[in-house]
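In the laboratory, one determines a bound structure by crystallizing the protein with its ligand and collecting diffraction data. In a computational setting the workflow is compressed into a single prediction: the sequence and the ligand go in, and a structural description comes out. We illustrate the idea with uracil.
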Amino acid sequence: MTIKEVQHPLVKHKLGLLRKADLPVYEFRRLSNEVASMLVFEACADMPLLNTHVEGWQGEPVEVQTLQERDPTLVPILRAGMGMLDGCLQVLPTATISVVGLYRDEKTLEPVAYFDKIIAHVAERTAIVIDPMLATAGTAIATIDLLKQKGCKNIKALFLVASPEGIAKMQAAHPDVCCWVASIDDCLNEKGYILPGLGDAGDKIFGTV
Ligand code: PRP
Ligand code: URA
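The predicted complex, in C-alpha cell form:
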C-alpha cells in the first residue's frame, strides 16, 4: 500500500480548523467536505486520458483529452463517510455511489457490517473508499475485502486522518491499495481513538454527541 499525506497548505489549514473541539456541526461538515474535495482531486491525478476531437467554436475539430475509464464509484462507509461524499461529488459529479454500512464495536473494536449496496459491474470501475478515520483499520479493511469479493481490482481510499497503527495494518492486508490522507497522526489511545485526531467523526457530522 502507498500512503500519500497531502501537503497542500489549504488541506493543512482546514484540517487544523477541524481539530477545534467546539466547532459547530455545520462547520465540521463543511470543512470535511472541503478537505475531501482536495483529497479526491489528488487521488485522481493518475487517471488515464484519451486523445479525441470535439467541434470547436469555429466549427473546426479541436484536439482535446477526455477520461479514458468509466466513472469511478465512490464508496462512503456509513455513517461518517457520508460527511465526505458531497465534497467528492463536487470534483467527480458523474461518479456512481456504492454504500457500505459498518460500525466499530466499542468493546472489541471489530467492524460490524450491517448494509451494503455496491453498484453493478463494480469490477469495471475504480472504487474510491471514503471515511474520515483510519484508526485500527478494521473498518476500511473489511470494506476493501468486500469490494475485492465483488471483483474490484482498482481500489483507492481517502481518509481525513490516519493512525500509524492503521496504516501498518492496511499495508499488511491490502498492499495494492493506495490511500490519500490529510494527516498521519501520532497514535491510537487505549479506546482505539486517534490522537490528536478529530474525536468521534460520525457524532460530529451527524450531531449525535
Ligand atoms: C468510525 C469511522 C470509521 C471507523 C474507524 O466509524 O468513521 O468508519 O470508526 O475505526 P477503525 O479504523 O478502528 O475500524 P464508527 O464505527 O464510529 O461508525 P459511524 O461512522 O457510524 O459513527
Ligand atoms: N472513529 C472515530 O470516529 N474517531 C477515531 O479517532 C477512531 C475511530
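The longest helix spans residues 25-43. Keep in mind that any predicted model is a hypothesis to be tested, not a measurement.
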